[in-house]
Structures are given as C-alpha cells and as structure tokens.
Design brief:
2 copies of one chain form a homodimer. Chain A contains 12 helices and 12 strands. With 341 residues, chain A is an alpha/beta fold. Chain B binds a DNA duplex (30 and 30 nucleotides) through helix 2 and helix 4.
Chain lengths: 341, 341
DNA sequence: ACCGCCAATCAAAGCGCTTCGATTATACGC
DNA sequence: GCGTATAATCGAAGCGCTTTGATTGGCGGT
C-alpha cells in the first residue's frame, strides 16, 4: 500500500503539502499543485491510513455502540435494536464515522467498555441501559462524549434520545379507555428498562385519572418475548375477573397474547382487545391484525448519532431529552368491550 | 491518559523493557522488574493505546463485518443476522478482537468497503452476500483475509461457513414426503441468496426422486418476510390444484402462510401442512405451533470468526465449506395430507 | 585473571500521518 | 526599485507504541 510519503516523492512535493491538499487544509495551495498531487494520488491508488491518522490527530472518527439490553440474544433480535442500529449506521456513515460494536451481555466494565477506551473511540452510544446495573456509571467514568438512547434523563446529565413513551402510552390508553375498557392489563416487559417504567407509570396514572383503581394482578412484568406474553396471558385469563384489554409491551409479547387467547377460546377483539408496540412486520398479518404503536426507531438512532457527532465536534449539546413521537396503527385487535363484561 | 512513556519514567525502566513486560515479550525480564513495572501500570491506571499499537504492529485486532443482505432493514431484523452477529462477537471478544460494522445497503465498493481497507481491519467477515452483485469481487480485491458466511463455495475460493442447507432441506423434504405429501410448494425467499438456491435445488431434486413432477407454479420467490409469505400463499390457494404442504423459506414467511390460510378458511395442518425455517421465538406460539428447522446461527458466527482469526494469525485455513446441521423441530403445523386431496 | 555467554536492559529507528514554525517566491503599494 | 504583506511550500517534531541491534553486568570454566 502506498503511503503519503510515496505520494510526496512521486509528485515532488513535501509531505506537508500533500497532507494539506488531502485534507483541504488551511494553507493555500496553487491549483496546479493540487492537480498534480491528486493525479499521483489517483495513479498510485493512495488512501490515507486511518490508524496513523488517528494517532496523529488524536481522533479516530469511530463511534462505539453498546447495547445495554441484558437478556440473551442481546442484540438486534428485536425491532428496537435493529432499527436503532440502522439509523446509527446511516447517520455515522454520512458524517464519515464508523461504528464499533462490543455488545456482549454485561459483566464488567473492563470487559465490555475497555475496547472503547483503548481504541480511542471518539464517543459512545449506549442503547437501553438497564437502570439497575452499574453500566452507566462505568460508562460515564470513561469521560468520553456519551449519548444515551432510552435512559432516564434526570440521571447522569447526558443527552438522551428516545421514543416518546409518555406520548405512546397515552395514545394506547386514549385508545383503550376511549373504547370503553376499564379492565386493562399491562404486560410491561423488562421492568428495568426505562421505557417499560415510563409506560407503566402512564398506564397507572391514566387508569387513576379515569377513576379506575389499578389492580396489581393486571400489571405483569416479564420478558419482551412471545413466550412471556403467552404465559402471562394465561395467568390473566385464569383470573376470576380477567381483563377486557391487554396492553402488551411490544409486538412479540402481543403475539403471545393472541396465541394464549386463541388457545383458551377467547375471541379477539370481541372478548379481549390486544394492543402491541413496535409494528413489527408480522403484526399486520396476525389474526386479527394487531393494533399497535409504530415506533420511529431509525430516526432515534440517527438523531442519537448526530448528537454524539456534534458533541465530538465540540458543539455544546445540552443534556436534554430528544423525543420522537410514536404513532397508533389501528388494526383489528381492539374494539369496545362486551356490554356484559 | 498516561502513556507508556510515563510508565517508563515512573518506574525507572526503559520504554523497551516496559513494552516487553506489557506484551509478555520475547526478552527475559527479572521478576522484580516485572513486578515494579506492573505496579506502576496499576498505579497510573495505564492502558496501551490501541491506535498507536496498531500503527506500530501493523495489526489492529479488528474484524470487519459486512452484511450482504440487501433489502431494507438489512441488519439483524431477522434471526439469521442476529444469531450470527452474536456468535461473531462472542468468538472475537474471546480472541481479543473487536468488530466494526459498516452495514448499509450495498451501493459501491468505495462507500461500503473503504472503511475496512483504510482502518486496516485485519480481516473481513461477509454474511450472505447476494450472488448477483459485485460485492464479492470488490471484497476480494481488498486482499484481506476473508471468511464468508453463506456463500457458494466454488466461487472465489474462500473459506465459508454455513448452515447445512442441503441437510436442512432434505430434513424438510423427508418430513413432508414421509407424511405422504405430493403437492408441495416452496416459498423460497430471496432467490439471489445461496441458501435459497440450495434449498430450491434440493426441493426440486427430492420431488423428482420421489417421482413427482415439480410444478413451476408451486415454486415462488419473494422476500423473507411475512407479507411475502402471505401474498404468495393467497396465490397458491387460488390455484385450481393448491398444494397440500408449503415449505416456507423462513419462519417470517411461514407466519404469513399461516395467516393467509386462516383467512381463506384453510385448516392447518389438516388441509395444509406448513413448515418454516429458523425457529424464531414466536414459532412455538402460533396456531398451530409451527414445525420448523432450527438453525445453529450462533455457532456459524463463532466458527466463522474463529476461522478468520486463525487465518489472520497466519495458519493456513483451507478454502473449504464448514457446515453446521440444522435440526427439525416437529410441532403441530404438519401432518399427513387428506386422503381426498 | 581472562574469555565467552547469556540474562537483562537500553537506545533509537520506524509505523504513516498531522501540524506548525520557518522559509522562499510572488504581488502590491508608493 | 525597495520594503512588506501574503501566497505557497517545506522541514521537523510529535502522536504512542513496537522492535531489534547494541550494551552492560555477572557467571562458570579454565
């Protein structure tokens, strides 16, 4: 591989001039000189070595990304992570950044975070860190520019971007309450994720605001998967007074709900309304098609990457919460409750 | 951040000695010396700068990974990518490698592949490259150690690891044929993916071997998603002689099949047997629970990363195909065809 | 008392780039 | 035609590490 030194020798100019041309540097350069240097660059098929550049510049143009989601296939098995990653990659690439990925289940800072430190990532994106682990403190102690996705804004004072879960949960509750439901259950998913917490709070507040006493047996934590949705629904249906509507923490959970209902002979939506979150591709093709909340994950990822890159560039990015609104997709799995229930 | 120079000064030894200790280098070192150096390392909380090291060693301990899957949310929306990635990360981390990720829809070599070249990745993993694009030639021309996942072995002469799709497809056909089906359709997914090709071939060969003439209207390409499965199934069911069994290219497709069948009032498995591929979590919770092929994606990813790392280490890795066998998970969506059909 | 060896350590060059003070060439004003 | 500001280019140091030939000191052998 040719080096900048080869380009200099071949073109007859100095390293400094070549470098200046290559980087559209601050020093003026005669057009003819630029032309000749670029000609050599092309002829030799020269590309700057990013490692050397990183060392010299003390800047790698690398973003680290860490997924806090702790459970097994921690990455990207869900629409959430995949969409976010897609957005991050898009925005990063646009700004000439690349992304390194060190997502393994969290054990300790040294294993999971050291790569970011040692490889001199310019900044870190952290996605959905659990609120009950020491991941965030460890991350902060790296003293690198940090932007979080899905994280309680009051903690740690870092810029955060997220889907507007308050708005989302309100959309769901508007819909269900508006339909006339009063016995509404919530399968919230991982209770240590901020989104889950936020939605639970809205769920409870809206119930109370509607003059409905929240029942603890209607609020079930679990995992964000079909199995959990299935099992929890079985539990709910076995209640002396089962709910007339279930607000599932995501679509995977909702698939499990649908399944359990079918198995128990409970008609959806006639006897049980079901609403999911995410609008995963299969959601449009369940029976009945799933009413759900479409989440702008990709935009969240893009925004997060952009903010981080701004911060790296030195712009002051206030530690505020950037929210993107979800959207209710009404399909066939929700309706007004039976008069009799 | 302290540098190795600080450690040297603080401990009173030379750079060379410190470096030798840090790397368990080839030169002998007095135990007392080692102790004192390490003590300083700890006290200063020194960590080698991987960028500088990369420059000096001409080796970055970085793997690049590129997902060839071209369609929109190209990464990780499916079980395939997610499992592979998980495996890759696990094996890479174990070997002290990190992974950089540049997955955007393929446009041209410069945009997608340049980062690997310029950042001096030690090697590249390519996942499911489309057979009809110029991605692979471009990748090869980088002249970096390369390991492919899901790629026709006869092309390019590179080590490849994959799920044993021949075995898998045979398992499926054994099952369906064994049940007595003769009108078997196949929704193959992206026809430009090698797995899809392989399965189609087995599908056709087994049909012929069983004395069944393959019908072109039973072999439908499409996308690996629910929508595609749904639409293609509608098409199949509208045929004068609809199939009694559908072999779906993956579970997402199979979900669509199930849905279309339900909508058309076709009983599964009584009137239509359905079999998927992947064993996605929701597969166990459909109605009926989906018979499917469980695929060892994670092991594929791990093996690929290990092979690549071996190659980088200089071990000769033959350009052979490493196959991992899938496993048939029999659930309720398949049965013998109606006598009448 | 001397030679040769090996263990232990050091000094310096080099990896490929950026940066910035220094230097030389060019243009302008009067 | 001379001084001076500016354009254009160069030289050299430095980023933080590795590597290797060179150096030193202590030991056994004779």
């Amino acid at each position: 591989m040719p080096t900048i030194y080869d380009v200099a020798k071949e073109s007859g100019f100095s390293l400094a001039t070549v470098s200046n041309v290559l980087n559209d540097g601050p020093r003026p350069v005669r057009p003819e000189t630029r032309r000749r240097i670029l000609e050599v660059v092309n002829r030799l098929n020269y590309h700057p070595n990013a490692v050397a550049r990183g060392l010299a510049r003390q800047r790698t143009n690398m973003l680290g990304i860490y997924y806090g989601v702790v459970d097994s296939p921690s990455i990207a098995i869900n629409a959430y992570s995949a969409g976010v990653l897609q957005g991050v990659l898009t925005a990063a690439t646009e700004a000439m950044y690349n992304v390194t990925h060190v997502t393994l289940p969290w054990r300790d800072a040294e294993e999971s975070l050291a790569p970011f430190r040692d490889r001199r990532s310019d900044g870190i994106l952290v996605v959905a860190p659990p609120t009950d682990s020491d991941l965030m403190p460890a991350l902060c102690s790296l003293r690198l520019p940090l932007v979080a996705i899905s994280w309680p804004p009051e903690q740690g004072n870092i810029p955060t971007v997220d889907v507007d879960d308050v708005a989302g949960a309100n959309l769901v509750m508007d819909h269900l309450l508006g339909l006339g439901h009063r016995r509404i259950a919530h399968l919230m998913g991982h209770s240590n994720l901020i989104s889950a917490e936020v939605r639970r709070n809205v769920y409870q507040e809206r119930l109370i605001a509607a003059g409905i006493e929240p029942r603890p047996e209607y609020l079930l934590p679990g995992l964000y998967d079909t199995k959990s949705g299935y099992e929890n629904t079985l539990r709910l249906l076995a209640l002396p007074e089962p709910p007339t509507a279930i607000f599932a923490g995501n679509d995977e959970i909702a698939f499990g709900v649908l399944e359990a209902a079918r198995e128990r002979g409970v008609a959806v939506p006639e006897q049980l309304s079901v609403i999911g979150v995410d609008d995963r591709p299969p959601a449009a093709f369940t029976t009945p098609p799933l009413t759900t909340l479409r989440q702008p994950f990709q935009r969240v990822g893009e925004e997060a990457a952009r903010l981080l890159i701004q911060r790296i560039a030195g712009d002051a990015v206030p530690a505020v919460l950037h929210l993107f609104p979800p959207e209710l997709v009404e399909r066939g799995s929700t309706t007004a409750p039976f008069a009799g229930s």
